[in-house]
Design goal:
Blueprint: H1 3-17, E1 24-26, E2 41-47, E3 50-55, E4 59-75, E5 89-92, E6 96-110, H2 134-142, H3 151-155, H4 166-175, H5 189-205, E7 212-213, E8 219-220, E9 240-244, E10 249-253, H6 285-305
Antiparallel strand pairs: 1-5, 2-3, 3-4, 4-6, 5-6, 7-8, 9-10
């Protein structure tokens, strides 16, 4: 597959898939774990003859494409140009079906994020369970060792709680009006409890505030996630997007109303004095004469003082 064709395929996949919930996936060539139905597609990346599809929980599907390989996009119900049973990967969302043909390899894995790795500590309560212990999650947040870590990263740390994907993270922070770069050490216990409680309620109902679900049960019109450049439902400011954290995950937030515990930015300042290297001066003869006069006047002034 040529670089141009690879780029065009990635662009088409981004348009059709990003921000959509997974309805079905089939990857018979992959021996790894598959993304969960209901998880949201967050990124489509292309490089070195491969296309990667990334979900909001950090799951990645990577396809290495042969010379005649590629991704096809079909609307639901549309007749395929190739036999469906020859597809190496099928990813289905609300309106589209993406199928990969003639791939040399198919691999699924999680984007490595040290803070989400279970080997670094025991897993926190799974908020997808009705019996999840919310107070234990709050205790773990309040006792977080790295007090200058951002709340965005803490919400993704599986040692604190399990189940909070990127969509939920963005929506929870928006709902609580907390700046995504707020340091965990600045949050009060009541604020941590509010975050955990809201995450629990969202996961239990599979409903992201203030989204509404269509007849098919698919969430849309989210408050922050996927709405970069659009007006905030609450304050009217424009939603922003950035990559953040160890795994460089996309993060959506509103700078107009998510101001709680916003970290201070060091203002620009002008020093009272500027150290200059005397060797670097204007070499023009007039400048040299002027500087000699200045130095003589300064020496005379210091001499008269004593």
């Amino acid at each position: 597959m040529s670089e141009i064709a690879l780029y065009r395929s990635a662009v088409a996949l981004r348009t059709a898939l990003i921000g959509k919930e997974l309805i079905r996936i089939n990857a018979p060539l992959s021996a790894g774990p598959l993304p969960e139905v209901g998880s949201t597609i967050e990124e489509v990346r292309s490089h070195n003859k491969s296309i990667e599809i990334v979900w909001d929980d950090g799951m990645v599907l990577e396809t290495q494409l042969r010379l005649l390989g590629g991704w096809h996009l079909y609307r639901q119900g549309e007749v395929w140009k190739k036999p469906q049973d020859s597809a190496h990967v099928v990813v289905e969302v609300d309106e589209w079906v993406a199928a990969c043909f003639n791939s040399s390899s198919v691999e699924t894995y999680r984007d490595f994020d040290p803070r989400r790795h279970p080997l670094l500590g025991t897993l926190g309560p799974d908020l997808r369970s009705p019996s999840a212990d919310i107070e234990e999650c709050v205790d773990r947040m309040m006792g977080y060792e790295e007090r200058d870590e951002t709340i965005s990263e803490v919400l993704h740390d599986q040692r604190i709680m399990v189940g909070v994907g990127n969509v939920y993270r963005c929506e929870i922070l928006w709902a609580c009006e907390i700046h995504p770069w707020a340091q965990i050490g600045t949050l009060k216990r009541a604020e941590c409890r509010e975050l955990v409680q809201l995450a629990y309620e969202m996961l239990q109902s599979n409903y992201v505030h203030p989204a509404h679900k269509s007849a098919e049960g698919v969430a849309h019109d989210l408050a922050a996630y996927g709405r970069q450049g659009k007006a905030c439902h609450r304050c009217g400011d424009l939603i922003r997007v950035a990559h953040h954290g160890e795994a460089s995950r996309v993060l959506y937030w509103c700078p107009g109303c998510q101001t709680a515990h916003q970290p201070l930015v060091r203002p620009n300042f002008t020093p009272l004095s500027i150290e200059r290297d005397g060797m670097y001066v204007d070499q023009h003869p007039a400048a040299q004469m002027f500087m000699q006069d200045v130095i003589s006047a300064r020496d005379n002034s210091q001499h008269n003082t004593y």
